[in-house]
């Protein structure tokens, strides 16, 4: 090791799902939306004048912040935007989690929470989900330096009812509570309606899933003005201009078309319900999902074998070789025809694996 | 103060230059390029298929990394990209500056260095520039946890000769040395040619100035593969997908047109030299600038008065009310006609201020 290596921050980075490229691939592994963004997004991108790009973008991201505020009926001083919800969440960790007491989050959850805490040297404690993969609200009544969980949870898809979130907030008035709603639009209830009553609540959402714009990197937080001010102070201390011109314009355009948004969500929810039914018929079980994925295990076939067999056929799902969940696959909901192709591969694969075992 | 406020990170954020909007404004305050990006950039943006945006971008930013590697004759494993050079530099601070010994940078320099160090709780020591606003290489021979400086320096515009950079590297083999070359294309010599000999050197550049793309947020670092690997590990621990689809495509397009790039640089350099001559005739003095701005003081007129007088006329320059530089204005080089308008306002303003004093 060279001398200069000893003070380098060594990290075990989060491993994102594979991003295979190719024509005959079905990507059901990173929870992307199978439908394109609202038509207005392409129009907005085509209308961007390249001349404008010589200038810095608006550091306050006003056009986008205003569109979000209007969409959700909050003040513009209640909205913070970032380069995907990962950027927003990382800024939240940096801004709000500075106690010596541990930050609490579930043991099975978005794996980035642990990565951020490690990287930022934030103490944390992972609270086990119950046997049904649910968060138990009574577990969040211990001393802590902040709380974060996704709702619905990832990669389980399980929704925590709003009454439980309210209970957690009521029992934690002295720390910041972050509800990460990356998947909330697919059928769960948003904690946004609790904002008026809890000044220490932050709701984080993203354009990557329900708005079909993972490729644009747009996330946002909605909270009380005082929290948004603190977040902006940290953001301006890190990188004043995080969102480029195209993100601001495309994000705004997506929000203007609520009809398209609802239509896409209805299609994905319908496909999800059909997918659940078929999976059940094939011997899979899963917690009820309110997201755009199903987290399923088969009664006899090992998840890793299914993952590999699907991949050989060009169908990518997500497999986590981690405690408690190593027998599960996270299957993103694609279009109906993508799910038909998925089942056309999965059925004979399950048959083959069953025969091998017998 | 609410209880939950006590563990919030409080920062004094960097204050970026004003971003006034309006038709009759001449912006010479944030060192943007007065010319539009290469024509290929607009074309690349128009060709982006909105359908593609539903997918996450390539986390490795390959199309852009390859174009940068090819442009500078380095390996793709020697290139790291980020959301503007601020993002790249902040990641560098986080990755490389983890010693208990102080990081060294000049007392007059890019003010973000101090902001990042404060936010990340990195100890640092500011080394005074000499009377001519030059970095003295012998000042960088003390115990330290890393070194960073811009070349040319900001906001002075002064170039540090390559021999001095080499001397600093030779005397600091055990720490990471970052040369921030945001303005290098406007006539200074790049430290890129030292890369083969110093594995602990990082060169950071940006598309915001010489490539007219501040609005797209693209920066990059070029270094030895081992340093780039460490940077990527930290980046993947923070936000795997920082650069959106449009940045990757537009950035690549800009690099393909080297002829346009050189033409724009030649125009700006010619305008800068004309501007220097006129400023001198009017009683201004300034260190020789190798950047796209001039850092000038007037022999009698107070900088703050000049700043305010120009602003009233719709001409924005940058004024820093800081020790040692409170009598200087940083004037970005615009087009010839913008500089003509600038002088048309500045000349009578200087006259008026002189008369007042007399």
Automatic annotation (TrEMBL), chains A, B:
InterPro entries: Aminotrans_II_pyridoxalP_BS, Aminotransferase_I/II_large, HisP_aminotrans, HistidinolP_aminotransfase, PyrdxlP-dep_Trfase, PyrdxlP-dep_Trfase_major, PyrdxlP-dep_Trfase_small. Gene3D superfamilies: Aspartate Aminotransferase, domain 1, Type I PLP-dependent aspartate aminotransferase-like (Major domain). It catalyses: L-histidinol phosphate + 2-oxoglutarate = 3-(imidazol-4-yl)-2-oxopropyl phosphate + L-glutamate. Residues 24-344 form the Aminotransferase class I/classII large domain. This is Histidinol-phosphate aminotransferase. Its cofactor is pyridoxal 5'-phosphate. Homodimer. GO terms for molecular function: histidinol-phosphate transaminase activity. Belongs to the class-II pyridoxal-phosphate-dependent aminotransferase family. Histidinol-phosphate aminotransferase subfamily. The modification N6-(pyridoxal phosphate)lysine is found at residue 209. It comes from Brotonthovivens ammoniilytica. Pathway: Amino-acid biosynthesis; L-histidine biosynthesis; L-histidine from 5-phospho-alpha-D-ribose 1-diphosphate: step 7/9. It holds the Pfam family Aminotran_1_2. It is an enzyme of class 2 (transferase). Its EC number is 2.6.1.9. Keywords: Amino-acid biosynthesis, Aminotransferase, Histidine biosynthesis, Pyridoxal phosphate, Transferase.
């Amino acid at each position: 090791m060279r001398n200069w290596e000893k003070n380098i921050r060594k990290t075990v980075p989060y491993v994102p799902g594979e991003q295979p490229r190719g024509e005959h691939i079905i990507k059901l592994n990173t929870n992307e939306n199978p439908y394109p963004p609202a038509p207005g997004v392409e129009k907005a991108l085509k209308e961007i004048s390249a001349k404008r790009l010589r200038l810095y973008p608006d550091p306050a991201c006003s056009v986008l912040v205003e569109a979000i505020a209007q969409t959700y009926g909050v003040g513009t001083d209640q909205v913070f935007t970032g380069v995907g919800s990962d950027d927003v969440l990382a800024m939240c960790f940096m801004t709000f989690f500075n106690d010596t007491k541990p930050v609490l989050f579930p043991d099975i959850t978005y794996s980035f929470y642990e990565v951020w805490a490690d990287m930022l040297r934030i103490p944390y404690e992972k609270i086990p989900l119950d046997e049904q993969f649910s968060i138990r609200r009574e577990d969040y009544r211990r001393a802590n330096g902040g709380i974060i969980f996704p709702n619905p949870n990832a990669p389980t898809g399980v929704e925590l009812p709003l009454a439980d979130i309210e209970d957690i907030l009521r029992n934690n008035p002295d720390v910041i509570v972050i509800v990460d709603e990356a998947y909330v639009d697919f059928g769960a209830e948003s904690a946004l309606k609790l904002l008026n009553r809890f000044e220490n609540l932050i709701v984080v959402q993203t354009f990557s899933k329900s708005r079909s714009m993972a490729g644009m990197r747009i996330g946002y937080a909605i909270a009380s003005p005082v929290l948004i001010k603190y977040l902006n102070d940290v953001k301006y201390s890190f990188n004043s201009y995080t969102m480029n011109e195209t993100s601001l314009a495309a994000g705004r355009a997506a929000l203007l078309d609520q009809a398209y948004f609802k239509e896409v969500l209805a299609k994905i929810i319908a496909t999800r319900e059909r997918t659940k039914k078929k999976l059940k018929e094939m011997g899979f079980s899963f917690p009820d999902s309110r997201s755009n994925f199903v987290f399923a295990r088969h009664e006899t076939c090992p998840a890793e074998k299914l993952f590999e067999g699907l991949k050989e056929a060009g169908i990518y799902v997500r497999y986590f070789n981690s405690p408690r969940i190593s027998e599960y696959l996270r299957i993103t909901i694609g279009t109906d025809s993508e799910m038909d192709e998925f089942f056309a591969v999965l059925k004979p694969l399950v048959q083959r694996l069953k025969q091998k075992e017998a």
